[in-house]
Amino acid sequence: MAAAPSTGVLGLTAKQTSVGASLKARRRSSPFVWTAESLLAAFVVAAAILIYVPTYLKLYQGPWQTEQEGHGPLIMLASAWLAWRKRDAVARAGVRPAYAAGWATLMVGLALMAVGRSQDLLIVETGSQILVLAAAVLLTLGWGAMRALAFPLAFLIFSVPPPGWALDALTVPLKGMVSDAVAASLYALGYPIAQNGVIIMVGPYELMVKDACSGMNSIFALSAIGVFYIYEFVANSPLRTALLVVSIVPITVFANFLRVVALVLMTYYFGADAVEGLFHDFTGILLFVVAIVLFFAVDGVIVALGALMRWRPARRPSTAR
Predict the structure, then answer these.
(1) What are the sequence ranges of the domains in the chain?
(2) Global pTM exceeds 0.70
């Protein structure tokens, strides 16, 4: 009688070791294999995110209704789209939850949220969600995924409404500078124009440069678009990146200068009623379009200058005599 093949302790141990190694490999390679600890962390983070519903309601009823922060929802959608584009990098990073760092970040984020909501500090309350989302990534996926999603999370900074005192500190000098530049330019061209602070007098009319005409609205929105563009298309060129970042504020101020000039000239030739309502809103949209066009034009000049500096004329081969 032939003896049955032996499946001793050695064979069983080898089989168990193989299965264990396979499970570990799956956990390293797939972000969809959950442990009990990661499921608990995901549940806690989901509950923490739900408490931001009142925050979004405040944003919808307040800052998102203004020209300064009306781009907030678009920033969040863009951040979500950027995170979705990183899904392959997140999958390659695998699942290695960083519980210590994740819980610590979550506690700090929730503490800031509590302080912001209790003290009616919307900037703190809104900004704390970035830490809570970072904690979600650390607790469920780990540092590898956190590195892949660092920019989408950081991009949410543009959705945080700035404090009123900071807006006032920047808006007032910008209004004065724009008013001075418009009055000086049109006076040099021969127009009957005078200025008293932010009030511009042209012919029989008086115009006051309001906060919306200071350029702050465009600075925030164009900064977000510029950073998005730089990250997607210019990140491999530090000098080009630095020049584009520096150009954002001058571009928006110049575009706003053109808007105020157009409003003053429209008032001078067609009367004060012509610049109210629809035309005023149209110039605001046109201002933003002009600022974006100028931004891309500056980038084109930078690229052209870079190509010109790298270009070297081909040398003609010398002919022996």
Answers:
(1) 33-161, 165-308
(2) yes
